[in-house]
Amino acid sequence: MKVLPEYIKAGFPTDKKIKADYSKMARMCREALASHPEDKDYLLAWEVVYLCSDKQYEASLKAGREVLPVLTLQDCIDDIERNELWCLEQLGRTPEAIDILKKKAAATKEGNERYSVYGSIRELYKKLNDRENMLRYGSMMLEESPDQMDVEELREQAEL
Questions:
Q1: What is the pLDDT of residues 138-156, one digit of tens each?
Q2: Reduced to 3 DSSP states, what percent helix, strand and coil does the chain have, rounded to the nearest 5?
Q3: Of 10, 54, 124, 142, which residue is the least packed, with the fewest Cβ within 10 Å?
Q4: What pLDDT is stored for residue 158 in this prediction?
Q5: What number of CA atoms fall less than 13 Å from residue 127's CA on the CB side?
Q6: What's the CA dihedral at 89, 148, 131, 106 to 10 degrees?
Q7: Closest by alpha carbon to 159, among 131, 122, 137, 124?
Q8: Distance in angstroms (rounded) separating the CA atoms of residues 24 and 6
Q9: Terminal-to-terminal C-alpha distance of the chain
Q10: In angstroms, rounded to a whole number, what is the distance separating the alpha carbons of residues 146 and 151?
Q11: 20 pLDDT exceeds 80?
């Protein structure tokens, strides 16, 4: 996503030892929409990310789902979608994150991207200790792009 605009970055503490107030940063992004409509996609996306950084996972999910339909920049859309998966996982809603990724895999035509989505699904199943689905999605990764799996993934797949 685009580098954070200076007018928002100014709200960050300059001392790295001081924790940023992400809730405040989210509010600043929302308020900046009035004076900087040209940065709408970035401001909305950063607001969602800051809510998540502040561990306001439900609020971040809600805000992300509200703004996603109005975003036009792909990098902002991608960040909101990744953020949604992270929030769901943090909330213990991993099966919901898996369902979202399965829909994305079904809609994805490019092999490398689908390989990556299958890998994400496999990792979530790993966190759930679901060996059967880990094996299934690992096999799908191999079918999609056999040259992309690294040695550790191949070893783990063979052990299943």
A1: 889 888 877 776 657 666 7
A2: 75, 0, 25
A3: 10
A4: 61
A5: 13
A6: 60
A7: 131
A8: 15
A9: 37
A10: 11
A11: no
What would the mean pLDDT of 1-7 be, rounded to a whole number? 70
Calculate the average pLDDT of the chain: 87
Q: Measuring CA to CA, which residue among 153, 98, 159 is closest to residue 125?
A: 98
Instruction: Output the DSSP codes for 35-50.
Output: H-GGGHHHHHHHHHHH
DSSP E strand stretches across the chain: none
Task: Classify residue 23 by its DSSP letter.
Answer: H
Dihedral of the alpha carbons of 74, 141, 122, 97, in degrees to the nearest 10: 30
Q: What is the mean pLDDT of residues 68-82?
A: 94
Q: What is the dihedral of CA 65, 67, 69, 74, to 10 degrees?
A: -100
pTM of the model: 0.81
